[in-house]
Amino acid sequence: MKMRILSIWVMLEDSLHFITVTATENTQHRRSQSNLSGASGGHPNDWNQDDHMSPSCNDVSGRELQPRRQRRTHIPDKPNYSLNLWSIMKNCIGKELSKIPMPVNFNEPLSMLQRLTEDLEYHELLDKAARCDSSLEQMCLVAAFSVSSYSTTVHRTAKPFNPLLGETYELDRLEEFGYRSLCEQVSHHPPAAAHHVISQRGWTLWQEITIASKFRGKYLSIMPLGAIHLQFHSSGNHYVWRKVTSTVHNIIVGKLWIDQSGDIEIVNHRTKETCQLKFSPYSYFSRDVPRKVTGVVADSRGQAHYILSGTWDDKMESAKIIQSSRGGSGSEGKQKTVYQTLSPKLLWKKYPLPENAENMYHFSALALTLNEPEEGVGLTDSRLRPDQRLMEDGRWDEANSEKQRLEEKQRAVRRRREAEATDALDEECDYDSGREYEGYQPLWFHQRRDSVTGETNFVYKGGYWEAKERQDWSMCPDIF
């Protein structure tokens, strides 16, 4: 009798659990396992064995281009400087950390704009998704992409540099990978960054992210606010989702470690299909694997088609649902749904870290290249920020002095801008029709109301790459 592997998933109203069964063709079941590892046995070679994906998703013709330049593979090792963290953090409990000056000893030599750009580490998932004929299969890959952006954070407990107002960061990978990315710090209080990416391989991504952070005594909560938009050119499928909360533990005593927790809802606003992802918080008493992520992909009527499973620091898999049924109530009276699926297939697998990564801030291969000096970038680019460059070179005392200089320079500009606004307001009061003060305006992004979410966001208005082509940066402010 022919055997095949099926999976049974039992979903409560607010959580997802499953068991794996070995079944014959007439689906007589025998239970075999009850944890995530039992159904997450995907291997890297599963990548090209996507039985659940349409042929269009797996077409790789013309996909890969040879890199045009050799990028760096290492940076100077992190110096071994000691600093009493508690002596600084004890005065920060309950405060917004973006307003508190911190020495570079707590930083990594990248800006928040560069960290935001790291979301593109697994851009090939979007290249593959752009080739999908099925929007549900596309949703699985978009969900894997949304999870993959957390994979670099598992060992990255140092904070990135807060960008200066007007600071930018470009990542031009047009020749190698077909995309161009631009970030700009559009607000300082609250700190907000706008990001725009366009790919020749069929997709555009944009987001405006405001980072809210609170120190709670034993841990630090980092809450990214703002929506991420992704649109595929050929189909017009428009996906929107938001990030989960990151928590840095053992701020005072013990080894720092980071966790991701919360729910992500991804919505395709063209088809109304959805994906519900759950990032399970770490619990010492839980029998689940750490960093677990589970999810369900459903059509516009709410009917589930795929189960997603994995961990945010390693891999994600999808399993196609072939049968579902309503079960009885659980121990807490919640309704059960039982899903029978085909065996899981690998969607995404994390790349191994480079050799000696533990001495290079645990940077990924992409992160090691982000601050590499590059000719022709805008004068406000993070690569040109002197305190960050000094820190990367291991000259931390000089970096701290430069950081203080830059922050004081920014404060002086802000005071001057506030004085101009006050003068304009006084003129308006004196003459009824005084000059209107416009306030700070970003160079490359402007505010527009989003037709999908109804929110007002900063979106790319164009002009940056044309200015780069001309090498005309005369419009750039002097922020460094």
UniProtKB/TrEMBL annotation:
GO terms for molecular function: cholesterol binding. Residues 25-76 are annotated as: Disordered. The keyword Metal-binding does not apply. Keywords: Lipid transport, Lipid-binding, Membrane, Phosphoprotein, Signal, Transport. InterPro entries: OSBP_sf (IPR037239), Oxysterol-bd (IPR000648), Oxysterol-bd_CS (IPR018494). One of its GO terms (cellular component) is plasma membrane. The keyword Nucleus does not apply. It is a peripheral membrane protein. It is found in: Membrane. Residues 1-23 form the signal peptide. GO terms for biological process: lipid transport. Belongs to the OSBP family. This is Oxysterol-binding protein.
